[in-house]
C-alpha cells in the first residue's frame, strides 16, 4: 500500500485491510497452508 509522506507519523492508527498489518499496513501477512493427505 502506498504511504502518504505528508501525514504525521507519530499519532495515528491504521485500520488495515485483511492480509496486511503494521503501523501503515506495510506488512503483507501472507499465509501459506501446506496439507498432505493419505
UniProtKB/TrEMBL annotation:
InterPro entries: EGF (IPR000742)
Organism whose genome encodes this protein: Adineta steineri
Record bears the keyword Transcription regulation: no
Pfam family, one: EGF
Keywords (A to Z) from UniProt: Disulfide bond, EGF-like domain
Coiled coil: none
Name used for this protein in its record: EGF-like domain-containing protein
All residue ranges annotated as the EGF-like domain in the record: 1-26
Superkingdom as given in the UniProt entry: Eukaryota
SS bond list: 16-25
Amino acid at each position: 500500500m502506498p504511504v502518504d509522506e505528508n501525514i504525521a507519523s507519530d499519532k495515528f492508527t491504521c485500520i488495515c485491510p485483511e492480509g496486511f498489518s503494521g503501523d501503515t499496513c506495510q506488512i503483507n501477512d501472507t499465509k501459506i497452508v501446506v496439507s498432505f493427505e493419505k
